[in-house]
Amino acid sequence: MTGESAPVAMEMLDPRIGLCSVCLHGRQVASSRGSVFWLCELAAMDPRFRKYPPLPVQRCAGFEPAGSAETTR
Question: Distance between CA atoms of 8 and 53, rounded to whole angstroms?
Answer without folding.
Answer: 23
